Each structure stands twice: as C-alpha cells, then as structure tokens.
Predict the 3D structure of the following.
Amino acid sequence: MKVHGTHYRTIWADDRERVHIIDQRRLPHEFVVLELKSLADAAEAIRDMAVRGAPLIGATAAFGVALGLSADPSEAGLRRAVAALEETRPTAVNLRWALNRMLNALVSLPRDLRRAAAFAKAREIADEDVAMCRRIARHGADLIFELADSRQGARVNILTHCNAGWLATVDWGTALAPIYHAFDDGAAIHVWVDETRPRSQGAALTAWELQAHGIPCTLITDNAGGHLMQRGMVDMCLVGTDRTTATGDVANKIGTYLKALAARDNGIPFYVALPHSTIDWNATDGLREIPIEERSPVEVLTVTGRTADGAIVPVDVAPSGTRAANPAFDVTPARLVSALITDRGVCPASRDGLLSLFPERA
Ligand code: MRU
C-alpha cells in the first residue's frame, strides 16, 4: 500500500539482501523504516512488536532465519535460528508455519548454498502472503457487495477489531483487504475502528491505514461496539485471526470474543478473514489447545502517545502498585463465526467447511 505516494510492503529485502521493516511502534506519529541486521534483531522486532500481526510475524521469522544463516550457515545454526524465533510469540501459528517451511527447504542443502536459498525462500513466503491477501480481498469484497445491494446504496457499516490491515501482513491485509477492494470498486463503506487496548492497534494502526486510503472511519472505545450494534449502526463485523483450528475456532486479539457475542445477540454477521497459513490443522479445540500470549502488565498500566512537544511516551493510567493482567488474545468459538473468508473462498467455520476448500487436508 502507499505511504505518502510511495508503495511499501511491511518487510522487504533489497538487492544487497538488507532486510527492512516499518517500525510499527512509532506509528501513527512517525513513519520510520528500520534495518534488521541479525537474527537477534528479527527476534526482538517480533517480540517487541515493531512488527506484529500473524502473517507479518511469519514473514519476519522467515527473513530472520536468512539473517541467522548469514552469520552461521551450519545445520546447527539453522536449528538455533528456528528455535530462537519460534519462542518470540506463542499465539500466531503463521510463525511456526513459516519456520517449518524454512527448515524443510534448507536443512538438506549444502552449507554454502543455505544463505542464498534462505533469502529466496523468505522472499517467496512474503510474495505468497501478498497473493493470499489479494485473494481474500476479492472473496470478502463479494460479501460486502451483497450486503451493499441489500441496503440499496446506503453505506455499509463494518466494525473491526485490532489491526488486520496491510500492516499486519506483508501487504493488503486480511480483514481490511476486502474493505480496500470493495471501496476501490465503489462500495459505500464506513468502518467502526475499535481502539484495541492495551496496545491500541486500532487507534494507532487501523485508523492510520484507513485514513491514508481515504476510507471513512470512526474510532470507538473497545466497549462501544455492543451499543452500536443494538442501535442498528453495525451491518457486519470483520476481523482477522492469529490461529484458526481445523474446526473453525479462531484466536484473535483480546476482546474479539465479546464482539462476536454482541453480534450474535443482534443478528449481525461476524466474519473472520485469514490466509491458510493461519490454520492450525492439528488443533481441534481452540479453548484448550491455542496458547494465549500473556504480555507485560506495563501495557495495561500505561498508554503510549504523543505529547504536545512531540515526544512519544508512555503515561501511567493506574495508581502506582496496581496489579494488572494482560492476556493478549481470546478464542471465539466457531459457532459464533458466520463464515471464514480464506484465500480459497468463503466457507462455514467448521471442519466440513474448511475441508470443502482444503480437501487435501481430509
Ligand atoms: O498482537 P498483534 O498486534 O500481533 O495482534 C494482531 C491481531 O490480533 C490481528 O487481528 C491478527 O494478527 C490477525 S490479522 C492479520
């Protein structure tokens, strides 16, 4: 997508195989590009959320392996890189998906070919992510147009949570991709953007992305969605997922489950968009099997923003000494999901639904 008229991906390697990312910790206040110079830089960028969002975490891990092999192309070096990256964030399964692909592609190669092959594979994973998101965009846009037709031209109000836009992927996004596609094709759309405490990915990233694209949007507190749904002000919820079980349960940013409950109570469709790299085919029970990342209480006890003098700083929001808990994701059971929007099409959130699109997994 474009930033100030220039097309960017969220991660890329230049022709000298230097890896660059957009530092998402600085957005929306500053647009800063960082170079990742080592495996340790890549692991830290994922852990500290300079990059975030399930597909981008996977792509960054792939480039992290390539950087690791630049320093140590041995098989032990490869395995060490994979192990170091694997433990950076637990919930997004794209991380393991990308690391397994890197390991399988590289382990049997001679040592002197590994580094170049690793960069080629990481680029392939990044390109595939873009292609998958483009397909999600087309499938999801059909749903938006169906809704728009039934509303005879009145704008479609879509509620989204966290950031599942181009910043969460290599380009285009998952949940926001259909919105970009439908908007570019003329659909009248307005997006309700959940602020998404504690890291405020909605306020900082989704609002920034949508406005840069000219899409009308309104930022709301995380608690406002249910009220808006009761008043008929939401026509559809559209979110991403960090891990989807083979039975259609989805883990996404904390607070997603409450939106799904409110949507069900108000008869509003609740869609989840995902590339197939987000499906954990080994998991069948999201509540029991998906590990939920527990992040630092500091994220709850503070809010980071820009002060009048331009400094970007965290400020305290609770009395000193307050105890805080910070589960970063929750699981929405398949029964609350109206449909999954995947790169292969739209299906019911169920084992049969997923298998109808991915029969090779039967
Ligand atoms: O903690 P984050 O910002 O990495 O969480 C991201 C989300 O929850 C997104 O909704 C998710 O990755 C799915 S969309 C690409």
Notes: The longest helix spans residues 111-150. The two ends are 36 Å apart (CA to CA). Residues 129 and 231 are 37 Å apart (CA to CA). The chain has a mean pLDDT of 97.
